């Protein structure tokens, strides 16, 4: 099946020290495949599963990752640093090509031969937890001076079954030159001063221009000859939920057990996004199938504001800045409630391991900011631990560098925003079958974006199918 992100850049093999991310791509996704004939002992205590070892013998654990042999070698080099840092645990990295990764893991699970720990895509975590294949890792940060932000904990039946290895939040990027030329105030970087949806649309109209210099609402404006659009709101299904939540509803109930996308508030939010193109004439047509929105809008020089993930700073905006783009970052507008989504790919401890305690020690070390620093300072990843958001010395170390927009703007619009009450976990942190649901939703909404049908009609007509997809019965 198709997934519109191989997360969200999720740039899951970005060369240096880590090989996976909570950013976006668009590839075939098999992470939702059901595991069969697999042991279901996820709830067991780690100590009951430990093999007896002599005091001088290292516990050997395996760590699986998707990527090439070269990427596996680079990850093994990082593991070797861990191996040399203590005398109790020896980590061996097993690299599996992306296209075969989940198929291989499913086969290993059936045979009872899973690695001790490894990478798992966002939308596979709850799936595998429901099959009893993941350990509870709630104790992983006990005794530490900091733990990951609450929005980065994957939950199943109240237990934390994984933490994101990196943080990503959705923000608003804008072209400063376009705002300056139009003599329009920049979007707010402060959560407390976030624009309402109406303010956002009104500003977008001031920044939308046809070939004769006219704006939407002015006499003579030609919506067929627009040369610059005021905004683009990313409408990939998983990002689209931001607006349903902001409008007081969502795609699911808070515990992920029920589908809420058919509620009036969710339908209204989706229609408002569609109407940016259909009625407000402030956005280009986007059909919600590719995740290159920043490149197609802000970097292309055709759009003044665009919503997307924080990872874009490192994956494309740094290069665009070097080539002359003057941009900055702001918080998202809101409909009723202020909302941004947090996400990030997971490292998990498989329940078949006999060495859960050691596996947790390894991935805690591996997930530490020090070991993914090149990705953090480049703007691809954000830290996970709370202290990087609250300790000003650490925040300066992270953000006060040329790869980011000015410190005060980025700190407010990204760092403080990610720690605020607006930051909600993306749905795959707490509910199952999100790949099937999002794939179907993307198809259902295709005619909504072009105006052939309304969000209400499209979702009402397909609501039973969406509920079935959520239940795993598609």
TrEMBL record:
Residue segments, region Disordered: 28-54
InterPro entries cross-referenced by the UniProt entry: Bact_solute-bd_prot1, SBP, SBP_1_CS
Keywords carried by this UniProt record: Cell membrane, Lipoprotein, Membrane, Palmitate, Signal, Transport
GO biological process terms held by the UniProt record: transmembrane transport
Pfam families per record: SBP_bac_8
Signal peptide: 1-24
Keyword set includes Nucleotide-binding: no
SUPFAM superfamilies: Periplasmic binding protein-like II
Record field: compositional bias (Basic and acidic residues): 41-54
The family this protein is said to belong to: Belongs to the bacterial solute-binding protein 1 family.
Protein name: Carbohydrate ABC transporter substrate-binding protein, CUT1 family
UniProt organism field: Anaerocolumna jejuensis DSM 15929
